[in-house]
Amino acid sequence: MLKRLGERLLSFYCHPDFQEDIKGDLEEYYFFNLEERGQKYASRKYLTDVVLLFRLTLLRDNWLTQNLSNIAMVKNNLKVAYRSMMRHKFYSFLNLSGLAVSIAASILIAIFVQHELSYDSYHQESDKVYRIATHLKFGDNEFRIPAAPAPMAKTLKTDYPEIRESGRWRSSFTAMVEHNNQFYNQSRISYVDQSMFNILTFDIIRGDMNHFLDEPNTTVLTQTVASKIFGQADPIGKVIRFEDQFDLKVTGVIADIPDNSHFRPQMMISMLSNPDQTSTNWLSNNYMTYLKLSDTNDPQGLYDKFPSFIKTHFSAQIKQFIGATLEQLQSSGSIIEYQLQPIERIHLYSSQDYGIPSEGSIQYVYIFSIIGFFILLIACINFMNLATARASIRAKEVGVRKVLGSLRKQLINQFLTEAVLSSVLAFSVAIGIVYLVLPYFNEITDKAIVNPVFGSGGLWPYLIISCLVVGLSAGLYPAFVLSGFSPVKVLKGETTKGKSGVLMRNILVVIQFTTSIFLIISSLVVYNQLSYLQTKELGFNKDQILIINETQVLGESVEVFKNRMKSVPGVMSATVSSYLPAVNIGNDFPLLRADATSNEEAVSVQNWDVDPDYAETYDLEIVEGRFFSEDMATDSMGIILNETALKRFGYTEDPIGKKIKRMGGLSGAQPPTYTIVGVIKDFHFRNMTEVILPQAMYLRPSTGSVSIKFAPEQALAVQKAAGDIWSEMSNGRPYDYNFMDDLFANQFQSESRVQTIFTIFASLAIVIACLGLFGLSAYVTEQRKKEIGIRKVLGASMPSLIGLLFSSFNKLVLISAVLAIPVAYFFMEQWLADFSYQISLNVAVFIIGALGTFLIAWFTVGFQSLKAARRNPVENLRTE
Amino acid sequence: MKKYQLGEFEEIVLLTVGVLYGGAYGVAIKERIEQKLERKVSVGALQSALRRMESKGYLGSELGETTKERGGKRKRYFKITSLGKKALDYNIQTRMELWNQIPDVAWEFKLC
Asked: What pLDDT does A495 receive?
């Protein structure tokens, strides 16, 4: 039995030449052992001998022994590739630099895309974590909010056992904190439930994670904040004074939250310190609510249970608050719906699904991936085109090799080696470029990526694969064309230009130019649209306005501050209000006409508290009536609406003096009624990309900031005076100021980022395409050298010669334009459709795109053609 | 550069093949080495040494007649080639040269 196994094993691995005698020897030992020590020992010995016979020298021919000859071949191929590269330095340089730059661009895009896709995936069990998103429709008002009512988290967890954990956070605000008489303006402060630490993953540095925020007046800091306030000292147990109101005990320090997280507070305060958190109001959505589901992880199942959940918990309050039953509301088209957003999708999908402005958008991820692919494609096409165009130069080499007995397979191998070598070189250069431009890239994209290629989770495995793929795909076509030459024809001198080769090359050039024209048109449209948004009539003045923040710390004396500022020379106007245009403050509340009979007529309105100088400071245009005035005592119950609000209320004629009321509260008290004193022209008080919403202003104090309008020539003096007055009055509180136009520009950060990235990569694509065209035209004119010479001798004029060289390229660019324009039109229409305010697609853009490409092509080709046409015909015709 | 590469075990095998002139096949070589040097020789080590030296050209081989023994399998008889002899000569000669160069003082063992 063992002996049989041994024989099999030996036959399997041993070289057939050696098998017979070795088997014979083993047989002899076997019989010897059989007689001496018995059958059992003998067969065991046989098998161990076979196993010990497993030696390299005795093995069959295998990849190890065969490779020996292949290595020599690969070495030879590399040498030939290197020589042919060095022989045509110009082409090789064009090829390699184009390839390297485009690969670098694609790698950068890949880094960007990878980072965008990585959001929130680092949380443990991130696939089981969901955020609740609210979809409300009530009358004409529709909301998509990433927040839920206060009691939702706890109630859901009690009602449904499949929810393992639930937690909330709310608001992200800036406030003043103090420790040891040092004041700090701390941004990104949020109220957070203790249970959030079981849902999301934080890197804990100090403190007990299980008791971070389970008491009121406790706080957890990120490391940066902790070292800002406490330096090297251990912050645990120390006390921070918050807004001069109450003390917070530091219970923990966490590492700075990675920038691929959608939730990045710098300071977390226990939710228990937020008095509103115990609210039982189901109709106000203010809490970002997160659920972690049990291992079955069935979000759809949970979602299906929400309607009955809403019925159980919402009905009573809806009846009381709105005055209708849930069923009545639903039958009249209203919607109350809660959805579960997978946490990993929040960054990229929420702005589309829920109308929340977030930096990320899956659309841009797609757009950039496509551009990256195009750039790489264009560079590959360059490579293929130049390689096939140079075929006639290599043809003799191929012919000689074939005559000397080279197989087609070997030639293909040789050309593929050349292509892969180029791609390896290009990739190495590209990685160098990537590391060089990474700081600029981080600046443009507002990311902080270090060591993207070789770091942990780096791109290098993908790069190795794509290096081979690029090399092989760019080399495959030339390899087959070049290796297919018939040696007799080639050596006789009939250079096989091959009609099919020309056709293929033309197709590739058309593909290149189609993508180029597409990219030119798209970047023009994107550029126009985004600059349209930035220069659109705003309806308010954003220039020469200084904003002093955190003025609430002055308390009552903020009015004094404002009046002192007004007396500073150069100050034209000043106003106290927390509500600033362009910073996306949200304060929705439904209002009704005083004569409304049903709550369904309610209009959701943005409510701003301002002082009488607001309109003057921001140059708001009063359409009807007047703005608030201090002299009119009745203005405290007055209201000013924008035109949109007026339209929604239906008060189109003679609105002044008409009444507006608030919707009844839970308390059941009589809601207040306001009288319209004026109407302002619509202005863009929120993000420019959004439609202007109904807005109302009240004469009520809100002391968050002071806005100061100043004369442009006095800018420095005013700024200095403001700082001096502040430090006189504020008792050492930090002085924090902005300029309105900066705040406004911040609004467009993500848009202008897209604009910059898009422009850079689109122009790169065009440059690389031209690089290829340049090489190709250089080659074509070189080939027609003799023809040009003869024509010139026979009296052809310069223009006719250049026209001759241009004509073939003209045709190609024309075909490309015809292909690219409809595609660009289609895609750009889709892209524009997402904007509330959009430019119309202008014919000029398409003409400019196509003409621009023509010009660039002419310029590239023209340089070569001119050179060829101007050359002395003797030089062209002389045979060496 | 080494002129002839010959390991210690290879040298023994080569010598044994010479000793067994005409009858040097696997089993016989193994038996003789084990008997003379009183050490165990594994089949694997022996066979790989034989084939290695054959590819180096120190040994030649031919297959013998078919017999009824050994399950009808032929024996492979090994012979030293002239290159093999040169290698042996070289090995032995270099050793003798080194041996002769050892000064007599080296043989005066003393208790240090």
From this structure: 56
What is the per-residue DSSP string for A401-448?
HHHTT--HHHHHHHHHHHHHHHHHHHHHHHHHHHHHHHHHHHHHHT--
Instruction: State the total domains in chain B.
Output: 1
Across B37-51, average pLDDT: 87
Distance CA A193, CA A282 (A): 18
In order of A65, B25, B52, the CA distances from A56 in angstroms are: 10, 21, 10
Torsion A208-A214-A217-A220 (CA) sign: positive
CATH number, residue B96: 1.10.10.10
Kind and range of the H or E run holding A754: helix A749-783
Using CA coordinates, name the residue in chain A closest to B52.
A57
Q: Which residues of A620-645 are buried (b: 16+ CB within 10 A; e: fewer)?
A: beeebbebbeeeeeebeebbbbbbbb
**Residue A176 is encoded by which pair of tokens?**
């003043």
Nearest Cβ partner for A25 among B27, B48, B63: B27
* B85 within domain boundaries: yes
Yes or no, beta carbons of A53 and B74 under 8 Å apart = no
Tell me: the pLDDT tens digits for B13-39? 999 999 988 888 888 899 899 888 888
Q: Kindly state whether B25 is in contact with chain A, defined as any CB-CB distance less than 8 angstroms.
A: yes
All residues of chain A having their beta carbon less than 8 Å from the beta carbon of residue B55 are 57
List pLDDT tens digits, range A631-687. 887 888 889 998 888 888 888 778 888 888 887 654 556 778 888 999 998 888 877
Contacts of B76 in chain A (CB under 8 A): 20-21
Residue B3 lies in a domain: no
Question: Of A20, A25, A57, which is closest to B48 when you measure between CB atoms?
Answer: A57
Residues of chain A with pLDDT under 70: 62-70, 351-360, 391-392, 456, 493-501, 584-586, 664-669, 688-689, 879-880
Chain A: residue whose CA lies nearest to B25: A25
Bigger pLDDT: A83 or B70?
A83
Give the domain ranges of chain A: 2-58, 72-118+362-497, 140-303, 501-537+740-880, 545-739
Q: What pLDDT, on the 0 to 100 scale, is given for residue A355?
A: 47
The residues, any chain, with a CB within 8 Å of residue A605's CB and separated by 6 or more, are: A588, A589, A590, A591, A645, A693, A694, A695, A696
Residue with tokens 């196993």: A51
Which position has the token pair 């109302």? A696
Nearest chain A Cα distance for residue B91, angstroms: 23
Q: How far is B29 from chain A (nearest CA, A)?
A: 11
3-class secondary structure, A743: helix
Give the residue numbers spanning the domain of B60. Answer: 8-107
B3 touches chain A (CB under 8 A): no
Alpha-carbon gap, residue A343 to B47, rounded angstroms:
66
Classify burial at A357, counting beta carbons within 10 Å of its beta carbon; exposed 0-12, middle 13-18, buried 19 or more.
middle
- Residue B1 domain-assigned? no
What is the DSSP code (8-state) at residue A694?
P
Residue A195 main-chain phi, psi, to 5 deg:
-65, -15
Show which of residues 66-105 on chain B sit within 8 Å of chain A, judged by CB atoms.
69-71, 73-76
pLDDT at A192: 93
Q: What is the rounded distance in angstroms from the CA atom of residue A631 to the CA atom of residue A368?
A: 57
For residue B2, being part of any structural domain is answered with: no
**pLDDT (0 to 100) of residue A156:** 92
Q: Which tens digits make up the pLDDT trace of A337-351?
A: 888 989 988 888 876
User: Which of chain A's residues have a Cβ under 8 Å away from the Cβ of B44?
Assistant: 49, 52-55, 58
- A49 contacts chain B (CB < 8 A): yes
pLDDT at A506: 84
Strands (E), A180-325: 182-192, 204-206, 218-222, 239-242, 246-254, 267-270, 285-293
Note the pLDDT of residue A796.
85
